[in-house]
Amino acid sequence: MSDDSANQHFRGQVRSWGTANKPNGREGDVNENSPLLSNGNHSGTHDSHIVNGDGGNKTLKFLFNSTQTPGTDSPNAAVSDMAILWFALRHRELTDHFPLDYVNFLLVMVPIGIVAGKLHWSPVAVFTINFFAIIPLAAVLSFATEQISMKLGEALGGLLNATFGNAVELIVSIVALKEGQIEVVQSSMLGSILSNLLLVMGMCFFFGGIVNMRDRVTGQGMEQSFASATAQTTCSLMTLSSASLVIPATVSTPDRLYSVLDKAESEEKEHSILVLSRGTAIILLMLYVLYLWFQLRTHPNLFDAETQHHEEEVEEPIMGPIAAAVVLVVTTVLVAICADYLVESIDPIVETAHISKNFIGLILIPIVGNAAEHVTAVVVAIRNKMDLAMGVAIGSSIQIALLVTPFLVILGWAVLDKPMTLHFETFETVAFAFSVLVVTYTVQDGKSNYLEGAMLLGLYIIIALAFYVSPSDAIDRVLSVVQG
């Protein structure tokens, strides 16, 4: 399908949808075959209820009613593409049709966040506004990536999704690394992995288990199932990544304690940790490339369990690749700007609000880039599509552990001249290793229930509380006391 035909196809959908949802309230039933609407689960009165209620707000009418979306029929390709993008974002639905309307309303925070950073508002205001601004930008980035990947074929599309799957976390981490906030970078990487393994997977198991608790025929208790072979393969990779963190921590901590009085020896040990981290990062990147080849080329059947049940569903892009590429570039620039202001406000917040950098990196920053994916995973788990939910949760963790984190180590070494290492604090390493261990035991039987979900959520909350009450760089403080 060419760019023009793709856009014409979607313009037709926009017009037909608008006709079926006229402001007068007639013809309220929707076309269930439209890819923009859920199949019978999303009432045709969803938007008309918002815009046609008593005393309906004209702003809401403009935002929700497709007949009020200007530019979709413009002869100017650039104008029409942007109008189509805006309409698609308002009514775009995640996997299995979960609407993102309310998330995309946060786009108004983007210009406010940039102005707040430019005018040097209070650090709390700058951090908060840009925090919420990046969330919808992450959704737009994901949307543009999906549109481009549909045109590139399975292999290149999969590679593009792998590259931009955690683009927000990567951008925020690069900005933080450039500012020398290595502790924030390490915590955000670990936090992204833990949030996917424990928080997202725990919510999938819990809510999916609650909704699908009993068999509809017999009334007996039942468990949800997924492909255990795929889960075990990815968990094996996570175990490897945890080992890559445990080894530097094991090598470094005793040496730092014993050589603290000898500055020259201490510097030599730090250099050794850098060499170890950089060598390990190269190996992890090679393993990730091999994993992609395994997933996309030699054994794709192991990762397509969900697709095999829906072969009749063929999704077509609603934007041309050029327009999607422009959106991708512009959104990436906006994310970088907001991330820059967000990172700059971290130090003042730590000083004034008495919140550790570890907590900000581990808990808050991962929410920014993963909010849309988190919602997706939980929704499809509730719909009893656990293979897809597991793919979202564990797949993102694999990307962070084997791609993003090693890439940041190499970037700090070769480009930014920053001592980014795989030497995490001892508690961070232990928390990560135990989390991987618990998740591995949980998924090995290929079944899940709400009790297992509650256990994963409980472990995540315990770790979050531990990071909240623990000060930043605790070991460095101990060493400084010993040196003094």
TrEMBL record:
GO cellular component, one term: fungal-type vacuole membrane
Membrane topology: Multi-pass membrane protein
Single Gene Ontology MF annotation: calcium:proton antiporter activity
Compartments (UniProt record): Endomembrane system; Vacuole membrane
Keyword presence, Ion transport: yes
Compositional bias ranges of the Polar residues kind: 1-22, 31-43
Transmembrane domains' residue ranges: 100-119, 125-144, 156-177, 189-211, 273-294, 318-339, 359-382, 388-415, 427-444, 450-469
Single Gene Ontology BP annotation: intracellular calcium ion homeostasis
Main location: membrane
Domain Sodium/calcium exchanger membrane region: 124-296, 324-468
Keyword field: Antiport, Calcium, Calcium transport, Ion transport, Membrane, Transmembrane, Transmembrane helix, Transport, Vacuole
InterPro entries the UniProt entry points to: CaH_exchang, CAX-like, NaCa_Exmemb, NCX_ion-bd_dom_sf
Region feature (Disordered): 1-51
The family this protein is said to belong to: Belongs to the Ca(2+):cation antiporter (CaCA) (TC 2.A.19) family.
NCBIfam families with a match to the protein in the record: caca2, cax
Function per UniProt: Has a role in promoting intracellular calcium ion sequestration via the exchange of calcium ions for hydrogen ions across the vacuolar membrane. Involved also in manganese ion homeostasis via its uptake into the vacuole.
PANTHER family: VACUOLAR CALCIUM ION TRANSPORTER
Protein name as it appears in the record: Vacuolar calcium ion transporter
